[in-house]
Amino acid sequence: MTADQAKVAVLISGRGTNMMALVEQASGYEVVLVASDRPDAAGLAWARNRGLAIFAQSPKGIGKAAYEDALDAALRTAGAGTIALAGYMRLLSDGFVARRRGQIVNIHPSLLPNYKGLDTHARAIAAGDAVAGCSVHLVTEELDGGEVLGQTEVAILPGDDADTLAARVLTAEHRLYPTILAEFVTR
């Protein structure tokens, strides 16, 4: 492990509950930056209140390339060697991913390779699956297609809808992600 691998930037777009879990359960890594493509993301206030460095900029009006250049500059300034996507709802460009190959991980609310993309809980229920879950994976240019680093199963209960299942999967994410990130930065 290099020292910069243990310095983690967490990218969020909303509430930041997985970011909070990563910060609160940090073991073997340090969150050095919380970044968001939405300057009004609720998770930013929580991070600010804990004295974490913040990058908050919307790509609207400046374009994806300029936004990713600004994000990359913030990552370099923070010394981040690992990027953890935690509810970050923007697709990174192929070029950005290629420049940071092997440094970006993501939490996804399904048992990959099942249900890549959005609406994972509704799709699992509609398919009649007995279990759903979450996966931490490496980010590649293929949407939700990188190597799976860890998974947790969550039972689909009678009467579940997408919201009730999502709440239980989110709890599982909060346990899985910090553990897998700690393992990832030491490999």
Architecture overview:
The chain has 187 residues and is an alpha/beta fold. The protein has a single domain (3-185), classed as Formyl transferase, N-terminal domain (Rossmann fold). 36% of the residues lie in helices and 22% in strands. It contains 6 helices and 7 strands, in the order βαβαβαβαβαββα. The chain has helices at residues 17-24, 42-49, 64-78, 94-99, 120-126, 162-185, and strands spanning 7-12, 30-36, 54-56, 82-85, 104-108, 131-138, 148-155. It has a 7-stranded mixed beta sheet, with helices on both faces. α5 (120-126) packs across α6 (162-185). The longest helix has 24 residues, at 162-185. The radius of gyration is 16 Å and the shape is globular. The termini are close together.
